Amino acid sequence: MPQLTPFFFVNQVTFNFLFLTIIIYMFTKYILPRFVRLFKSRLHINNL
């Protein structure tokens, strides 16, 4: 059914956009601050 092809692509685009925003939010909120804290603590320990 070729008339459903645009809806399929729109569905893919919206799903991927939602997925990307969730991934970016998780990285900026939880994962990256943990790495920054880890590197800061390593720097602090090395300076002692």
UniProtKB/TrEMBL annotation:
<keyword id="KW-0496">Mitochondrion</keyword>
<dbReference type="InterPro" id="IPR009230">
    <property type="entry name" value="ATP_synth_su8_fun"/>
</dbReference>
<dbReference type="GO" id="GO:0045259">
    <property type="term" value="C:proton-transporting ATP synthase complex"/>
</dbReference>
<keyword id="KW-0472">Membrane</keyword>
<keyword id="KW-1133">Transmembrane helix</keyword>
<feature type="transmembrane region" description="Helical">
    <location>
        <begin position="12"/>
        <end position="32"/>
    </location>
</feature>
<dbReference type="GO" id="GO:0046933">
    <property type="term" value="F:proton-transporting ATP synthase activity, rotational mechanism"/>
</dbReference>
<protein>
    <recommendedName>
        <fullName>ATP synthase protein 8</fullName>
    </recommendedName>
</protein>
<keyword id="KW-0812">Transmembrane</keyword>
<keyword id="KW-0813">Transport</keyword>
<dbReference type="GO" id="GO:0031966">
    <property type="term" value="C:mitochondrial membrane"/>
</dbReference>
<dbReference type="Pfam" id="PF05933">
    <property type="entry name" value="Fun_ATP-synt_8"/>
</dbReference>
<keyword id="KW-0406">Ion transport</keyword>
